[in-house]
Amino acid sequence: MPATNRPQSMELEIRVQNLENQLEHARGLLHQVQLGHQADLDLAKQAYDGRVEILQHSLTDIRSRAERESRSVRESYAARLDAVRQQVREHAVEAASQDIVEQEEIKRLRALHLQALEETRRDHEDQVSRIKRCHLNEIEALKTSTVYVRNMDSMMEKVNDSTQQLQKLTAKYETAFHFMTQQSDNIAVSNKHLSS
């Protein structure tokens, strides 16, 4: 090799060696960067996995708590609904019993009212019959008496008195009948209002 080319060749070798060293150093730096990047990725993955696990646990806890609260609400609602239904049934039974008692009371009052009316009617008929018999007896006595003419005025007065007494008894019977009928209607209306 000529002497002039030897320094150039050495210089070229040195430059090549330097480039190779720089390349090796760059490779080393790249490897370190890759290792650091991988470490960062692993750390990020671990952090992400940890957060995902925490979120999963939180979600599980939330779901469990929501299920417990929902179950508690359903049980409470069912218990309240059963209590309301029981109260409704008891109220219905009580209302039915009260209605039966009221109907029996109405029947009893009607029976008493009819009995009182019947007794009043019989008393009135008995009094009318007695007055008629008295009139007939007086008339027969006056007819057979020799003092028929002299006792005519007295007979007429008795007849008038008996007629007035009959009218009073009739008016009393009608008043009692009207009063009892009105009382029965008032009781029926009052019971109907209570039932409604």
Tell me the strand percentage band: under 5%
How many alpha or pi helices? 2
User: Major sheet: size, sense and barrel closure?
Assistant: none
Q: From the helix content, strand content and strand pairing, which structural class follows? A: mainly alpha
Mean pLDDT: 78
Proportion of helical residues: over 70%
- Multimeric state of these chains? single chain
What's the total number of strands?
Answer: 0
Low-confidence stretches: none
Distance between the termini: 135 Å
Shape: rod-shaped
Radius of gyration: 62 Å
Q: How many discrete domains?
A: 1
Order of helices and strands: HH
Structure description:
There is one protein chain. With 196 residues, this protein is mostly helical. The protein has one domain. The chain contains 2 helices and no strands. The longest helix is centred in the middle third of the chain and has 140 residues, at 5-144. The chain is rod-shaped. The relative contact order is 0.04.
Which key features would you list for this structure?
mainly alpha; 2 helices; 94% helix; 196 residues
Topology:
Blueprint: H1 5-144, H2 152-195
Helix pairs in contact: 1-2
Protein name: Fas-binding factor 1 C-terminal domain-containing protein
InterPro entries: FBF1, FBF1_C
Organism: Ciona savignyi
Summarize the structure.
By secondary structure, the chain is mainly alpha-helical.
